[in-house]
Write a structure and sequence with these properties.
The complex is a heterodimer of chains A (275) and B (295). Chain A is of the alpha/beta class. Chain A is built from eight helices and eleven strands. Chain B contains nine helices and eleven strands. Chain B has helices at 18-29, 77-81, 105-109, 149-166, 181-187, 201-216, 232-245, 258-264, 275-294; strands at 5-10, 33-37, 52-67, 87-88, 94-95, 115-129, 135-141, 170-174, 192-197, 221-225, 249-252. In chain B, the strands form two sheets. Chain B has a nine-stranded mixed β-sheet, with helices on both faces. A two-stranded antiparallel ribbon of chain B has the order 4-5. In chain B, helix 1 (18-29) crosses helix 9, helix 4 runs parallel beside helix 5 and helix 6 (201-216) runs parallel beside helix 7 (232-245). The longest helix of chain B has 20 residues, at 275-294. The chains are: A alpha/beta (275), B alpha/beta (295).
């Protein structure tokens, strides 16, 4: 079972739910918690321990070999991402802008643009009890998260993986959602939460997946959101609770101390494990 | 870029109150300021301001390969070179549009000239008048679209053009989340970056990462601690971290329902009756003004 916790809006409680659900489920079996929020991976903060490095993730970009280059100009103007500029007698490569399509490298008649690897981040892991926490972590300043997300996804455990997805609805979020059997969307009952929930629901439906919505920090009903949720699978609600926020802020799972959260996790387990 | 000074509000971590702070600042600065929303992947900045669209400009952020079926002989040359698994082989090749990266390698390699590149609509740039009497430049990214920093760059450029036209001296920009391409695009060339964080371990972790990015750009910056009383020990850690990185604490806000309650009523923090919050925003505004003048 591959379950992704996602949210259109950052800070809605995605990581809170992912860490608590994974820890809760690990009381009765092996669970992998896979952090695919590669720009800001936070799940491991809740489970201190020593990391084991699983993989250094590299992308490939062309490196100019001036000895081989005959200044023929074939590569000039070829790159649609402006990652390569051919001037008279010199080729300049902007490695961070390269999308790794290999066109310039393979079409160079002289082989003067060999592809070379560049590390963009790591996939690493730590274990506590039945729980394996694995994260993809992209280096600060790297701009392309998708290869990093793809690498992290290779470390799913087929039996039970809880994935903490990237926020938003852009390409890296889509990559993770496309690989999920079940999607849980976390939102908050505000106009911002609703706006972003509508966007990510649309993305899930486009991918042919019916999401289950969890409304976090729920107080009195927020009318427009109630109306939206009538069209979805029966949602679950986590009440507004300062203890949950406090345990989260200290980097601790809250469910053993907060019965209302434990109730929601039990209901979630019922829903996702009996399908 | 125009002569207008630009303050960009960002946060590594989502949900720290970035947009609440940015909208309160835009309200408080009044009609000398213009708004810009660079959180294109979940554009929330306009929601509180009742935007009335004045201009809507399609944004073609990438390209996609298109097969001309008449010319295609199904030779698979394109499928062999595509690194993005975007070509489905067959009697006629088929491009999987969602997978296509727009690199154009297939166009170069096709022996029959059967492939062309086409612009792909990935978003919209909008200029709207808002209820506080000023303008906002904002954008929407197509769902699942390429979250290109270019859309962000074009929104900011448009904001500067409008600021020049209308004689606005200040731009308040709601920046992109994270530490990737869009946030780099949000802050480059800005006059001041305000980092909004919260005293949770995640907040601190994300602040460290995003601060490393910002200090790399040498832009004057400061920190806002939201929900400061949620965890006082972590709050102190942020203060120390700020000292170490040369980032002053520009304001602190308490953990309060007023943030979400004001949102539900579509009001900025300045329009609530919480005088404590209002005073803190006013004070922050003054400090930002003096930081910009010193420069």
């Amino acid at each position: 079972m591959q379950i992704t916790i996602a949210s259109g809006k950052g800070g809605a409680g995605k990581t809170m739910l992912a860490t608590n659900l994974a820890h809760f489920l690990s009381q009765s079996g092996q669970v992998t918690l896979l952090d695919c929020d590669v720009e800001e991976p936070n799940c491991a903060l809740f489970f201190p321990g020593v990391y084991t490095s699983l993989e250094t993730v590299s992308v490939y970009y062309p490196k100019w070999d001036s000895d081989r280059c005959t200044d023929c100009g074939v590569c000039s103007g070829m790159c649609r991402f402006n990652a390569l500029i051919a001037l008279a007698g010199e080729v300049i490569v902007f490695d961070k802008m390269c999308h790794g399509c290999y066109a310039c490298s393979e079409l160079c008649p002289q082989g003067a643009l060999p592809m070379v690897p560049r590390g963009i981040g790591v996939v690493q892991s730590r274990k506590t009890g039945n729980l394996v926490v694995t994260e993809g972590r992209i280096n600060v300043g790297e701009e392309q998260a998708v290869p990093m997300v793809k690498a992290a996804l290779r470390h799913r455990d087929p039996s039970c993986t809880i994935i903490d997805g990237p926020p938003g609805t852009a390409c890296s979020a889509q990559e993770v959602l496309a690989h999920s059997e079940r999607i849980i969307l976390v939102t908050e009952p505000t106009p911002y939460g609703l706006h972003d929930l509508a966007l990510i629901t649309e993305l899930c439906l486009k991918l042919g997946k019916e999401p289950l919505v969890v409304v976090n920090r729920s107080r009195e009903p927020f009318g427009p959101m109630t109306a939206f949720l009538k069209e979805t699978e029966t949602p679950l609600f986590i009440p507004e609770n300062k203890d949950i926020a406090h345990y989260y802020s200290s980097g601790e799972v809250a469910w053993p101390h907060v019965p209302v959260l434990r109730d929601v996790l039990e209901q979630l387990r019922e829903r996702i494990c009996h399908e | 870029m125009s002569n207008a000074a630009e303050i960009v509000v960002i946060s590594g971590k989502g949900g720290t109150g970035k947009t609440s702070i940015a909208s309160a600042l835009l309200y408080e600065f009044g009609d000398v300021a213009l708004g810009a929303d660079c959180d294109v992947d979940g554009s929330n900045f306009p929601i509180l301001f009742d935007p009335q669209p004045l201009e809507s400009i399609p944004f073609y952020g990438s390209q996609v390969a298109v097969i001309n079926e008449e010319n295609c002989r199904g030779c698979d040359a394109c499928a062999k070179v595509c690194r993005f698994e975007a070509v489905e082989k067959g009697a006629r090749a088929k491009i999987l549009r969602d997978a296509c990266e727009g690199c154009g390698y297939c166009v170069q390699i096709c022996p029959f000239g059967a492939i062309t590149m086409e612009d792909r609509l990935t978003g919209t740039i909008k200029v709207s008048s808002i209820r506080t009497g000023t303008l906002m430049v904002h954008g929407d990214l197509e769902v699942g679209g390429d979250n290109s920093g270019r859309l962000v760059a074009e929104i900011r450029e448009k904001a500067h053009v409008k600021a020049r036209e209308l004689g606005k001296s200040l731009i308040i920009t709601d920046g992109s989340p994270g530490i990737g391409c869009p946030v780099v695009s949000s802050i480059s060339g800005a006059n001041y970056v305000l980092l909004v964080t919260e005293p949770s371990l995640s907040g601190i972790h994300d602040l460290e990462r995003v601060a490393a990015l910002v200090t790399g750009f040498s832009i004057p910056s400061g920190i806002v601690i939201n929900k400061a009383d949620l965890n006082l020990r972590n709050r102190d850690t942020i203060v120390l971290l700020g000292k170490k990185m040369g980032l002053p604490i520009m304001a602190e806000f308490p953990f309060t329902h007023v943030f979400s309650e004001s949102l539900k009523q579509l009001k900025t923090l300045m329009e609530t009756n919480d005088t404590n919050l209002i005073n803190r925003i006013t004070h922050l505004t003054k400090r930002l003004k003096s930081s910009l003048e010193v420069k």
